[in-house]
Structures are given as C-alpha cells and as structure tokens.
Specification:
Jelly Rolls; Galectin; ten-stranded antiparallel sheet; carbohydrate binding; Galectin-like; ConA-like_dom_sf
C-alpha cells in the first residue's frame, strides 16, 4: 500500500510512504536482535556527494545517543566508511572495501544483517564487509537515521 513495511520486530513510530525523497529521516523500531536485518533501497540518486545510514540507541542529542553503526558512502572518494560512537567516544573508522558498489543514477539495495558478533553489510546482494559490534545490548539499538539526497523505494 506504499507504507513502510517493518521487518525489524515492531511498528515504527512514523507514517512513511514510498517512494520518498530523503534529505534526513529517522524512524524508531522495537530494537535490534540477532538475525534481524535492515533493508534500504533507492530508486534514483540526485548526484549528491554522499549519503549516510546510522543505527542508534535512541535519538537523544544531549547527551548524544550511542551509534551502533554509522555508514557513509562518499562518491567523490569512492569510499564506504563505517564507525560507531559509544558513550560520546568515536571508535576507529573503517574504510577498506574490495570495490565501490554505488554507481550514480543507478538503483541500489543496502542490507544490514545483525549476527553474532557483527553486522554484515550487503549491497545488491553481495557481502561488502563486516562490522563487529561495539554496543553490548543489541535491543537498545532502536532508531535508524538516513541522510542524503536519496529517493527511497523501500525500507524495512
């Protein structure tokens, strides 16, 4: 019906219709769990320089919410960087990837699968990298934040 289909364990606290042009979007869900996954698909790309996807423990800004994983695709540098922030401290940024999977103006599908002891990140069905958990309580991860000039066609 064009509304958000939530596969993350509980209803989100937003009414989102797709396709949707996103400059900044956050949605709350019932908490991450082993075997859970997040899926983001986009239809078009407005040739911006980057986009980001973050899974966080709430949306607090003061004090800042912990960030379990922050993904940022930087088209100009052909990088897909990831990091986390726990108790206000950023970890070591990771940027090594076998190839840059995004092509301007081409659709893509990003899936983040939660496993023990890591997130596995897939782009268009191909595993790109693993990111080991830095947050101990996975159920505390209950918010997704997406930014960038994207037109989302599916989020679940």
């Amino acid at each position: 019906d064009g509304h958000l289909n939530n596969s993350l364990g509980s209803p989100v606290q937003a009414d989102v219709c797709f396709p949707r042009l996103v400059n900044y979007l956050y949605l709350r869900f019932g908490g991450m769990y082993l075997g859970g996954s997040l899926l983001a698909e986009r239809e078009t790309f407005c040739l911006c320089c980057s986009f980001g996807i973050s899974l966080t423990c709430g949306e607090s800004e003061d004090p800042p919410a912990d960030i379990a994983i922050e993904l940022k695709a930087v088209f100009t540098d052909r990088q897909f960087v990831r990091n986390s922030c726990v108790a206000g401290e950023w970890g070591e940024e990771q940027s090594s990837i076998p190839y840059f999977p995004f092509i301007p103006d081409q659709p893509f599908r990003v899936e983040i699968l939660c496993e023990h002891p890591r997130f596995r990140v897939f782009v268009d069905g191909h595993q790109l990298f693993d990111f080991y958990h830095r947050i101990e309580t996975l159920s505390a991860i209950d918010t997704i934040k997406i930014n960038g000039d994207l037109q989302l066609t599916k989020l679940g």
